[in-house]
């Protein structure tokens, strides 16, 4: 009970170290551990992590090797927009049956690939392993290699069996697949006698960056692309929103990597620094302060007075455009209390700052997969008395939101009806968001969304 | 959108699926378990399964969906999930305190071979609390199979024949339908004056009223005492052979309750049969109220029949729903040209083909265990005037520019549907309104100025 300052918490003993109250305890909240069996976790699995990161690659065939469910539930749920191919919005599965589980699914996988290549003529196929594939031990690597050689395309296995960790492990599996993709294509590596040659030296393009950790939900990556273009910085490729085979191949040419979603992409950035000598910086385009700071950070990196000047002009212009709108919302939202429960730590941090900008008090903040250093930042940003929790379940969310008198919850699909049942306003900050929340325009959209849900007349009837 | 679908049809040898028309067993089991009062469904496997099923059900019903998970990690998949399940059972009753926990398996726990009944026996289940289970491997059948298995599991574990003589009451097993449908089925039985137990019953659970409080276990759902009492009922009516017949036969074997397997009561004929079965077995006249509704339905069918007659319609979805719908569409004079379900089972094809033959319709495509790629190819080869199916049909409807009526599971892009029945005469009226509006809206949209009319 010493971990908790709240009265009579209905919390499983093992969960207590994962919850703290700012100011009440010295100890930091525990995180990055397996969930307790029997809790109603809001978390997903390794496959889910890998799928959400890779799925926005538009011209790839995303083939799920396993029974039908894994492919069904992830069919076009990401909300990533495309300016090109629509392949990624189909759902492909090997639909494993009892027979495949007993005798192995490799043969079936190979034939499915044959048929998909014939139908869609793709340049790139990702083959995702699911729980069952991990258990029966299908050699994905071998099947993919053989089929890739047969068709002279890239077929990349994604090691994403659901039980080998949580969503974060899936991010890593996705990043490993991306690293394999970025490496020069096999045909370039092969010399005439079939031996592997050294990869060609990469030509770096100046003032060109890769944008990591934006999935182009509601066109967010396009907004940022335009900002950067205006200040004279070109986006080389976005990982992975609206990306495709050709653009991803060019990734090594960038002179800088910027990372938005740290949870999913920091590993990739570190690897790219190691292999391709591309430095990286963390940025965030959620909220005005973060957007301003991030644009300046990028401009400073290039150490070019013209870029810095253009950056300041853009910031000044955009701020002027949104100022009066934001002030109006701020007034309307005086005294509102918000609760946050999102997937990753980066988003929670951004939201804390955004609410501060709007003058909204945050009374509870938690994540599914936040990391230690992120909880450190969360703890610094949070005000006294804020409940901070990792891997929460609905009972805990309900309890803390009710006790702390929250008016609003920011979360994902599963949290929405929970908030509504409690008579709380709600904002989706995950796959189901339909308005961009990035950049200056996103800050206004965010304020507008907060306002329209908090101030809806519907709450009068509760 | 899905314009990469080709017209040319080659037999697909791989058995792979492009754009599935089904999903896996555990979600069906989870949904069925939610229809038991104060029950917490429990997913025995990795976290992702539980998370996906809750997410999918949440998107369809727009209500909180509670379920716990065994949270498998590598250790569990090597050494078995026994320890995880035991911990889960202990934690679930300590913290969430349901009356009953309904465990379903996943492909992972099935493959490593966890012996669930033994693990449950070895677990600390508090006095007065219950743990039941259903085996639901994802690589067999579909979500409908999982639903059926959990309902069967519930009666196998709980139903008891405790009386010498059977009670004048009916068990109604409604199948994988919305809470609004279950509510309507209950209403019809009540109006008929027949004492009934509907199992499962998600009304009041997934369409519960908003009170400003979050109730982990809302008021609805079949009570445990009622499930026990199903063994004493005079008969069971299974609505839909795919989702409901197994439980009815299990009750017959275990408690000698007479089974009757009927169609899901969609449309006039299937509703008639449902009510006549109640009437003849319980000696009750068909209630005036229901006769009036039937009369209204026939009236609007008459008023509108010329809108539908001869129109070609493409239907897909869960087998029991599609079978009921096809019968109704035929009664409206429509021509089902493509009929498909993702759930395997040859009796689907047999039943649909017989219905079409009786109506004198030839050349229609009928398939079980199909996918939406095939369905789309059919439409490319033989166009339809209307499409009926779940949300996933929207890609095809857009690509082929066909009016589209959303019926079935899941519907992720519209709301309110789960409150509104499609069963019974009332449901038939609603379906008729949806179908006719879709066709007439389309006519308005496509009319040239000189053909655009006020009265239709």
TrEMBL record, chain A:
Listed InterPro entries: Nase/OxRdtase_comp1, Nase_comp1_CS, NifE, NifE-like
Q: In which pathway does it act?
A: Cofactor biosynthesis; Fe-Mo cofactor biosynthesis
Keyword set, alphabetical order = Nitrogen fixation
Which residues belong to any copy of the Nitrogenase/oxidoreductase component domain?
45-454
Q: Which SUPFAM superfamilies match?
A: Helical backbone' metal receptor
GO process terms (BP):
protein-containing complex assembly
Please provide, alphabetically and separated by semicolons, the GO molecular function terms listed in this UniProt record: nitrogenase activity
Extract the signal peptide range. none
Offer one Pfam family short name for this entry: Oxidored_nitro
Membrane-crossing residue ranges in chain numbering: none
Q: What does this protein do?
A: This protein may play a role in the biosynthesis of the prosthetic group of nitrogenase (FeMo cofactor).
Q: Which family does it belong to?
A: Belongs to the NifD/NifK/NifE/NifN family.
What name is this protein filed under?
Answer: Nitrogenase iron-molybdenum cofactor biosynthesis protein NifE
Source species = Desulfuribacillus stibiiarsenatis
Automatic annotation (TrEMBL), chain B:
Q: What is its EC number?
A: 1.18.6.1
A GO molecular function for this record?
iron-sulfur cluster binding
Q: Cellular component terms, GO, for this chain's entry?
A: molybdenum-iron nitrogenase complex
Q: Tell me the superkingdom of the source.
A: Bacteria
Domain annotation Nitrogenase/oxidoreductase component: ranges: 24-439
User: According to its UniProt record, which cofactors does this protein need?
Assistant: [8Fe-7S] cluster
Q: Name one Pfam family in it.
A: Oxidored_nitro
Subunit relationships: Tetramer of two alpha and two beta chains. Forms complex with the iron protein (nitrogenase component 2).
PANTHER family on file: LIGHT-INDEPENDENT PROTOCHLOROPHYLLIDE REDUCTASE SUBUNIT B
Its function, per the record, reads:
This molybdenum-iron protein is part of the nitrogenase complex that catalyzes the key enzymatic reactions in nitrogen fixation.
What is the protein name stated in its UniProt record? Answer: Nitrogenase molybdenum-iron protein beta chain
